[in-house]
Amino acid sequence: MTTTRFAPSPTGYLHIGNLRTALFNWMIARKNSGQFILRIDDTDPERSKEEYVDAIKEDLEWLGLTWDRVERQSERLERYADAADKLREIGRFYEAWETPVELDLKRKKQLNMGNPPVYDRAALALSDDEKAALKADRGTGVWRFKLDHARINWPDGVLGDLSIDAASVSDPVLIRQDGQVLYTLASVVDDTDMGVTHVVRGSDHVTNTATQIQIIEALGATPPTFAHHSLLTGPQGEALSKRLGTLALRDMRENGVEPMALLSLMARLGSSDPVELRENHDELVAGFEIDHFGPAPTKFDEDDLIPLTIRVIQSLGAEEMAEYLQTVPEKLRENYWNTVKGNTPTRFYADKWWPVFAGDAVPVVADEDRDFVVEAFALLPEPPYSAETWSVWTGAVKEATGRKGKGLFMPLRLAVTGQQRGPEMADVMAMLQKKPAL
Ligand code: GLU
Predict the structure, then answer these.
(1) pLDDT (tens digit, 9 = 90+) per residue, 85-105?
(2) CA distances from 123 to 81, 101, 137, 155 (A)
(3) Domain boundary assignment for the chain
(4) How confident is the model at residue 364 (pLDDT cuts 50, 70, 90)?
(5) Could you tell me what percent of the chain has a pLDDT over 70?
């Protein structure tokens, strides 16, 4: 069975980059009638926060990205300890005592000599006495996985055939000095235990994947299929990493972005398939092919969400919008909504036209139009109004004042609605509840 996972660390809110990973994994699972696991990578007790776990779930629920089960790494520490023991037994795990400062010095020296800054495995050369002395002096060290210095190859679902020379990579630290298990080990143990078949994540994880393949094999398991999607950039190709904090999913929600707009964009952006508004989740899933995505960085422009959101809004009926139309009298809601939805950018603006229809808009009248508007309003009878009111009224005003075209209509629109743009004036007038006050 196809099994995928989305594995956020609960150290912040989900942002647009996380969404891409979550969505791809979710679509693969759903497309293959498989399982989608929400895995909370919370092995870091200091940085992980329960409020972020709740926020992650809330954001995914908002988008309808349902999960089949939740796993938490903090509850699986024993499994990681078992795996560490196994790596020790087979001689693929070693303790090292260099301090961060010492490591940094080594790296600088290597770079000065024009060599890649790869850990020199000095700890592997220590005698038993030297190890005992270091242990007595510095306490427990970190634990590194001993890479097999061969090429690591895998067919990547996005990047094609990849080959990384293990000798160009430092033996990864899997357990910190304070005993905390690091992501690289926890992740492979989980992927193996949970039967994960497809791992899709950002291309910043490619080197991790190389080392993880060796760890998985050392533990006697078979690596899953890997695919590394490109990273997002801003509209001009600028790095997004620093701005990601401002592209939190919850901010988008608060700004009125519609889930289907966001999903429709992110499910295809960066692929050879067109971005189109999809009606529902099934449509997102149906046309999704991970190999239609390319390795080039993907430009993300928040503004692309605006027209998509407007189209979602226009497709919604008054009933679906009821929550946001509370201030509109119930019997008028449907009529009201059908009249204004073409001029409603997000659901939070759904009732913003109501004061106009209630006859409570603040009129806008330019100085040079003052006399004209007063004269025109004198020609407007009291309600009830109908679909003909606008044409009858403007016809009478035209006759009386000689104005026509924009010079006739715009001052009246401004006086009645207080806005330069909006729904058809004939529709607005037909629904006006009282004669607007000047
Ligand atoms: N917690 C990791 C991250 O957020 C998961 C990476 C992975 O998918 O393995 O980067």
Answers:
(1) 999 999 999 999 999 999 999
(2) 21, 16, 15, 33
(3) 3-70+187-232, 79-175, 241-314, 322-431
(4) very high
(5) 100
Q: What's 271's DSSP letter?
A: B
Q: What is the pLDDT of residue 437?
A: 86
Distance 289 CA to ligand 1 centre (A): 22
Over residues 33-41, mean pLDDT = 98
- Residue whose CA is at the smallest distance from ligand 1 atom 4: 8
Work out the average pLDDT over 160-178: 97
Atom of ligand 1 nearest to the CA of 21: 8
| Host H or E run for residue 94 | strand 93-96
Domains 3-70+187-232 and 79-175 share a fold: no
* Domain 79-175 is found in CATH 3.60.20.10: no
| pTM tops 0.85, yes or no | yes
% residues pLDDT > 90 (the chain): 97
Residue nearest to atom 10 of ligand 1 (CA): 8
Atom of ligand 1 nearest to the CA of 204: 10
Encoded tokens for 308: 């998509």
Distance 13 CA to ligand 1 centre (A): 14
**CATH number assigned to the domain with residue range 3-70+187-232, chosen from the 4 options 3.40.50.2020, 3.40.50.620, 1.10.510.10, 3.40.30.10:** 3.40.50.620
For 241-314, CATH gives: 1.10.1160.10
- Residue of 9, 41, 53, 74 with the most ligand 1 atoms within 8 Å of its CB, for mutation: 41
pLDDT above 90: residue 244:
no
Interval between CA 158 and ligand 1 midpoint (Å): 17
Residue 20, ligand 1, Cβ within 6 A? no
Q: Which residues, 6 or more positions from 217, have their beta carbon under 8 angstroms from its beta carbon?
A: 223
Is the pLDDT at 51 greater than 80? The verdict is yes
C-alpha distances (whole Å) from 180 to each of 177, 214, 218, 246, 438 are: 7, 21, 21, 30, 71
Kindly tell me if the per-residue pLDDT of 246 is higher than 80: no
| Rounded CA separation 422/216 (Å) | 61
